[in-house]
Amino acid sequence: MNGRILIVEDNEPEWQLYRYALPPLNVDCDFCSSGEEALVKVHQNAYDLIFFDLGLPQRQTSRDEKPMDDVAWGEYIFKEIKRIHAGPICIVTFHRDSYPGCNALVRLRPHADACLAKVVTPDEIRMTAKRLLKLDSPDVI
Asked: How many domains does the structure of the chain reveal?
């Protein structure tokens, strides 16, 4: 194996992009669809790379609790993961000027090792993983 990757993406159909893009790199992949689940996985496992969707919805824990908006929640989770995880993190999100997460992306980009704009292609995922995992061998596609 060339590494272990965590994909934090709430849109499960997008998981197929990663399932298509990453097998040629011979890596293990774990998937999760929430920030809470991502924090648990990062505490329990060592990952060589994390792909992180910035716009994660927050799971409300009680009726009295006011949830953060998706971008604020994603920013909070990113910072928590960065505090625990020493390896590279790639933010995968929309980052058009009209997107509410644009300001969060500007704040987080200096702390990320890469940033991919949705709609992302399998080749972009593969090449980013290859670069961040330092898989420079000609045998790795």
From this structure: 1
